[in-house]
Amino acid sequence: MNILLLNQDWFAEEWRAAGHNVLTCGLKPDLDVTLHAPYLHIDNIINDLPSGFRPDRLVVYDNSSPLLFSGIDELKIPCFFYSVDTHHHWQLHRHLYQVFDGMAVAQSDYLPLFKDWGQDPTWLPLWASRYVEPSYSEKRHGAVFVGNIDPELNPERKTFFDELTRQCEVLCTRGAYWEIFPFSEIVVNQTVKGDLNFRVFEAMMCGGMLLTEKSDNGLFQLFKDGLHLVSYKKNDVKQAAEIINYYLAHPEEARAIAKAGREEIVRHHLPQHRAETLLRMVENLTDKRPSPDRHFSMAANFTGLATRLRMKNIDDIAQKPALILAMRAVEQGLQSEEPLREECALQIITAAFLFDITCNSSSGRSMLDRLCEAYPKLMALKFAKIRVLLNQGQIAEARKLSERISPLPPEETFSKVEELMSSLLI
Questions:
Q1: pTM (2 decimals)?
Q2: What's the pLDDT tens digit per position in 342-377?
Q3: What CATH number is given to the structural domain containing 176?
Q4: How far apart are CA 74 and CA 59, in angstroms?
């Protein structure tokens, strides 16, 4: 089978060893094919692959960003998406579920949020990404944390470790974890959103005793507290300090837990384990999954990309291509008479207004008119229409529409319209 991997090179070697032809591709320079610009159409990417490589499957790995390439919703080959940062982007990934034919998520706590939409992705937890030999005889450090403690990015983490280092000795640093964890008695883990992160698997792989937050996010489905790791209540500095001080005073106990944890990693959580599981999922995608709103969902993706650029104050030149792709996907959805979810409609409304603002255009307003006609039951579209009328100074028309759709006085409806639009056009 020919498999094209987009964004990351995870499991490429394992799948090649299993007899498949695998090509990695994306904007990162260490991939087989380096793309030098976003917004490319997937057909153009495939047509330019070396040696006439034609994939039988496309696997897209989450890189904590909306999709940067268009046309995946149009591909005839089965496509799979692996959501890693589900805890940050589950709302976007619910839209992407509609674009792909198969999907796995790394954070099991978020599965119910997909099920609320009638979706059924598979849980595929992270893994120990690097094989590291432990050092049980030589320990240079007591308790350590390796990671980002930037107060702007992780204010809660900064507060936690500032207080923890006042109550016990903890080395907080950044760098190559595989050079630090093997020589540490205890590896402390603190998460961003209760996620089952890479540090869990990396710490145990390296033979340090993992001290991590209690979490329902699959942690105790994979490991036993007190046998493979030790846990503390999130942000409970006093408890974490007491545990650290105890195990530093009883290193034999810490090393016994560290050894058991590493053995469990080696048995079940190496790259080859995840590679085998994911390969079965990809191989089982023999047909395209029926997904009636692929194009509208792709429009939501590109709207998300444009709004992210806008929030970072990145100029209109960068936003414009994303908005063009969003509007193109909306046009495809309209022509295909796709069903339109309320949540997706909100994204499309955002795209239409931003398109007109960014491109000095009226095409967004025209698109909203067509959507109102095609989906007359969606209240969000009616609110958007009222806002358009108000912007154009057509107050009487806005009042008439308001009176048709709401029992409230027009001024109250106008206020609600303004609240909605302000929330969308941040």
A1: 0.94
A2: 999 999 999 999 999 999 999 999 999 999 999 999
A3: 3.40.50.2000
A4: 15
